[in-house]
Specification:
alpha+beta; five-stranded antiparallel beta sheet; five-stranded mixed beta sheet
């Protein structure tokens, strides 16, 4: 192996170890946070809270400087109980509330919940007709001439903040935007797509894990060319379709072994 290959292999090995340690730390922290969510829910709602299926929100999907756990009230409902810790430089603030997600524009309205009776009241009101947005919007008439543009601006801000959080959290991954697009409709809904690249396949897997994203990894190459390990993943964050991809060039010996396997497979298939 050349020095180039040895250095790359050493980096890949260390990156893998770092990613495993980081994943273990995040898993432990998530379990502690979920335990806190269950505790607070039981204090507010009583024994009824025992049935709540709490899930930890990956850091990159939560709001900036916010740690979050959510529990769907029932399949198909557009309401979610959310326990939040919002961190600032001076203090730590916790909020337990009902999150109502608008199926039209994707905005979220959070109302603090103080008791089981209070939660029932909020749900009863939410199921009623003509529910207005927290900012005064109430369908097409309330949006005015700038409704579509306002929705586009909000989603663009969310997209930029997501990229900045990923870059800050994974400084060695070389996260870069390959493509970003937003399409806003007069109904208030916005469709967003974001395609990210990283410097290596391992870096792509690391960033994808922080988003709770499932990935696929494969080796690809053509005759006489370099051979690469490619990692790709896809998920949705705040209504934005996020795709990530990274490549790692295989060392000469691994590339030769891979080509040999491909040649053997071709011979077996032709016989």
């Amino acid at each position: 192996m050349s020095l180039n290959d040895i250095a790359k292999a050493a980096y890949a090995d260390q990156a893998s170890v770092d990613a495993e340690q980081q994943a273990a730390h995040e898993s432990e922290a998530a379990e502690e946070f979920l335990a806190a969510a269950r505790h607070v829910a039981r204090n507010v709602l009583g024994e009824a809270a025992e049935v709540l299926p709490w899930q930890y929100t990956p850091w990159a999907q939560a709001a900036k400087d916010t740690e979050e756990a959510t529990a769907a009230l029932a399949p198909g409902l557009h309401h979610t109980l959310a326990l939040r810790y919002a961190y600032t430089q001076d203090d730590e603030r916790a909020q337990f509330g009902l999150v109502q997600t608008c199926v039209s524009c994707g905005c979220r309205i959070v109302t603090e919940v103080t008791s089981l009776h209070h939660l029932g009241k909020l749900l009863d009101e939410a199921d009623g007709p003509g529910q207005a947005h927290a900012d005064g919007r109430n369908g097409a008439e309330g949006d005015g001439p700038f409704g579509c543009a306002d929705s586009l601006l909000e989603q663009a801000t969310s997209l930029v903040q997501l990229v900045r959080r990923l870059v800050a959290r994974h400084p060695q991954a070389g996260v870069a935007v390959d493509m970003a697009s937003l399409l806003s409709h007069s109904s208030g809904s916005t469709t967003g797509r974001l395609r990210l690249e990283t410097t290596t396949a391992e870096a792509a897997a690391e960033v994808a894990a922080s988003l709770g994203m499932d990935v696929t990894t494969e080796v690809t190459g053509a005759s006489g060319s370099y051979v690469f390990r490619r990692t790709r993943g896809l998920c949705t964050v705040d209504g934005i379709e996020v795709q990530i991809e990274g490549y790692t060039q295989l060392p000469d010996d691994e590339a030769a072994a891979w080509r040999s396997q491909q040649d053997q497979a071709a011979e077996d298939g032709g016989s």
